[in-house]
Amino acid sequence: MEESHGHIHHMDPEVEYSSSKLGMWLFLGTEIMLFGGLFAAYAIFRAKYPEMFLESHQELNREMGAINTCILIFSSLTMAIAVTAIQKGKRKMAGLFILVTIICGLGFGVVKYFEYSAKFAHHIYPDTNIFFSLYFMMTGLHMIHVFIGLVVLGVIMVLTFKGKFNEKYSTPVEMGGLYWHLVDLIWIYLFPLLYLVG
Amino acid sequence: MANHTIATNVYVSFLDKKGFLSWFLTTDHKRIGILYLISISLFFLIAGTIALLMRFELLTPASDFVSPHTYNVLFTLHGSLMVFFFIVPGLAASFGNFLIPLMIGAPDVSFPKLNLASYWIYLLGTIIMLFALLQPADTGWTFYTPYSANTDADVILITLGVFVLGFSSILTGLNFIVTIHKMRAPGMTWHRLPLFIWASYATAILQLLATPVVGITLLLLIAERSLGVGFFDPAKGGDPVLFQNFFWFYSHPAVYIMIIPAMGVISEIIPVFSRKPIFGYKAIAYSSLGIAFISFLVWAHHMFTSGISEVAATIFSFLTFLVAIPTAIKVFNWIATLYKGSIELHSAMLYALGFIFLFTIGGLTGVFLGALAADIHLHDTYFIVAHMHYVMIGGTVMGFFGALHFWYPKWFGKMFNESVAKLAWFLIFVGFNVTFFPQFFLGVQGMPRRYATYPEEFQSLMSLSTYGSWILGLGILIMTVNLLKGLFSGEKAPQNPYGSLSLEWQVPSPPPLENFEEIPHVTDWSYGYGKKKEVDA
After folding, report:
1. d(CA A22, CA A156)
2. Nearest by CB to A137, which of B208, B223, B242?
């Protein structure tokens, strides 16, 4: 994969591709375990305090949550289109669809910003109760992942427009896509668990 | 294997390039292995010195050398440094890095840059840790809530340091799994892999699956302290036992992250110095995976006295006994390998034999602790301290020292003084037992762990333990000096001093930059001793 050793070992492109893919899937597995702790905490506390969850979740803005869910699902679609495009060698199309994906991600962040501000305006903070502790920790950790995803996709987009990828070599685009789908997937679980209680 | 006698050119090994940047920016797995080796060894010596200070305080019943608070800080530092900075990265990161590509016939790991990044992340974690020392935590290495959420000490920095280290661990494990899957030389089938590789593979799985959980746990603890989140705070409806569940969901598998690589080392050393094929290859290989699997199902045996339900306790107790099975499979197979072998008591072999002896004591006392009734009495006593040090020093550290002596000639191209190494082994073995065996009795008699003072009736055993720690410390000092001296004035090491059949011994010592001039074609496993014509038996 690397040549920076000062010594050369060319890795077979096929091996390199399948190595990156295996590595990425393993990494996504660790992400699931990371969020797994929070999901476990959610399950335990929801079983313990069903009324608190029912009552507190009404403070959340379902419409905004639903809009954000649509935005992220749509962004997964555009990302998938970008990956398919680069695999067919259509660089410009791939770059444009990555750009759309990034715009969706930014849009998600803007909506989330308004949501958080509204909570703070109502004096709802992470220490308000267990439900909001979970809400802020889960969506906050997810938001960090969205930001990381945006940076990664931004770099990949620039490289795509510069023509670094083509039908023969598109590994980074695919890996970025996998990561973005994970971010999307986690939100698809967060939305009903937090916004649609009861 | 390739012919390495190059007549016209001077041989260039991976060690020959000099300069700070050639190390700091290296992506060579052998050099990164050395960086880890230096780092973990330093932390081992520092944390070991702290242990000597603690034992010195315990020489007499009163707290006359350090204050009880300082003692709390000392055992917190000793535990955190030993666990997170030495023994978890330990063998896996140092010898794993050095050996995995060499043993499977690869030029490097799958992602060399990521490998270097893992080391830098480890360094970042250590820097954060050093800052944490300004206001050192006194929580013990387990950071149990509610105390860790309320103490004035700086818990955030030290847990942040551990959190950062977790990334290093995860990325190293990821790299190793992909490497073992994708970089094996032609003919290196799964059932021809050296057993150290199987052990590294099982370890890497644990690193990947368990580490994120401690990551989120420590993040939640940080949020508890900084944002007032209340998952672990009963006053806010949280549950301190939840912290323990989360913590041990990682930290029990982490125990096997610490020990499985050492088991892999023992499986390499024993056949070479018995000159016999390893007995029960597949049983040893799959038992590593078995241990890894069961290790995820036993965490609550650390919590039998924390108020978990009786049903849960019974199930976890039963599952805990199950761990003994794959572990014993390994021990029996090593002993069967020794049987009727032509045994050579090289210093590395002495450490391997020490491992079998001490780890068996550590493992069996673990079964005592897994039994519910016995654990109620023994929990949080010196029995625990003795048990875990028999497993961690008697097991992992013996394996680590064994690996150091075994692969030293290959890694550094030098020989150390074998007689001094044997003397050091003897002192370490005796000193270790004198230190920790009395602690089993102290524990049974009811002496709790983590106290700077104790009743006078325990003084004879406590002082004996302290004297033992001096012998142990002296042994480690002699060993360290001996190995360091070998680097500067040792004889040049031959390519294969023990007549090993494993791939790493078929390249010059120290290995060349590229490991192999040509990627080898493997036709057999590496344990065919006594059956093939050997180089020098």
Report:
1. 20
2. B223
Question: B231: which chain A residues are within 8 Å (Cβ-Cβ)?
Answer: 41, 45, 130, 133
* A44-to-A37, B245, B425 alpha-carbon distances in Å: 11, 12, 50
Partner residue facing A37 (CB), from B107, B178, B216: B216
Looking at residue B397, the DSSP 8-state letter turns out to be I
Answer whether A36 sits within 8 Å of B178, measured CB to CB: no
Q: How far is B88 from chain A (nearest CA, A)?
A: 18
Beta-carbon separation of B113 and A44 below 8 A: no
Under 8 Å between Cβ of B532 and B197: no
Chain-chain contact of B231 with A15 (C-beta, under 8 angstroms): no
Q: How far apart are CA B33 and CA A147, in angstroms?
A: 33
Q: Where are the domains of chain A?
A: 13-195
Interface confidence, given as ipTM, is 0.91
Res. A4 pLDDT band, cuts 50 70 90: very low
Comparing CA positions, the residue from B136, B55, B173 lying closest to residue B465 is: B55
Instruction: Name the residue with tokens 């939640």.
Output: B220
pLDDT at residue A1 tops 80: no
| Contact yes or no for B243/B216 (Cβ under 8 A) | no
Picking from B502, B510, B509, the residue whose alpha carbon sits closest to that of residue B535 is B502
Among the residues of B371-417, which ranges form H helices? 372-378, 382-391, 398-412
Distance between CA A172 and CA A183 in Å, rounded?
17
Q: Which residues of chain B have pLDDT under 50?
A: 1-3, 6-7, 534, 536-537
Q: Whose CA is closest to B71, among B50, B44, B42, B48?
A: B50
Asked if B111 has any chain A CB less than 8 Å from its own CB, the reply is yes
pLDDT of residue B8: 53
CA torsion angle B181 B96 A2 B170 (round to 10)? 80
Chain B residues within an 8 Å CB radius of A41? 220, 231, 242
Q: What is the DSSP string of B41-89?
A: HHHHHHHHHHHHHHHHHTTSSS--SS-HHHHHHHHHHHHHIIIIIIITT
Q: Given its phi and psi angles, is residue B186 left (phi above 0), alpha (psi -120 to 50 degrees) or beta?
A: beta
What class is the A13-195 domain? mainly alpha
Domains of chain B and CATH, by start: 26-506 (1.20.210.10)
Smallest CA–CA separation between B477 and chain A, in Å?
36
